[in-house]
Amino acid sequence: MNTAIERDTNIDANEIVESSTRHLSRKFAGIYDEAYIRPIVVESYKSFASAKIQTFVAVFTTRFADDRLRALAKIDGKIRNTMPSVLFVCVHNAGRSQMAAGWVRHLAQDRVEVYSGGSDPGREVNGAAIEAMNEVGIDISNEFPKPFVTEIVQAADAVITMGCGDTCPIFPGKRYEDWALEDPAGLGVEAVRPIRDEIRRRVVELLNDLGIETK
Length: 215
Hints:
The chain has seven helices and four strands, in the order αααβαβααββα. It is an alpha/beta fold. The protein has two domains: about 1-80, Orthogonal Bundle (Helicase, Ruva Protein, domain 3); about 85-215, Response regulator (Rossmann fold). A four-stranded parallel β-sheet has the order 2-1-3-4. The radius of gyration is 17 Å and the shape is globular.
């Protein structure tokens, strides 16, 4: 992994990387040291170079690097996590996978670890998807499109793809499903509502299969 920001990157980038590295080094003390964490933070930062809202890049960077480090710690046997984990993958990580992750967080109430990612991440979460989820009391406006990474695929118990299954690496012993759902990109909220509701139905089935009861 490249461990440095390019020379022509402004100083704010280095400040973001150093601040995030310090924060995560405290959080993962005794598990990973700064030398291990920093290149993951750098890669995570670079994932948001084209993010539409640059104000939140520092937050996005830390959250994504945190997800990756937790996944790596699980793979390496450095943390014990008895909760099931689910990864939702679509093309842009801006609509379907974000709505699915939102439903899991809402319905499972911290009983499932949930990740999402895209094979070609967009610059922002779909506005109609945000509005449709707000209608059912779920706020996904603070989420952000990000790539899926191998360590999170490997750490997940269930991997749900939505139109990009061929790009997702396959690891033995995991549950893989492909949900054929219309892409909400370019659609208004009226057209997104049925997609939202179908995702809820499938998420409930998935959670029940994982032994998580929902209301």
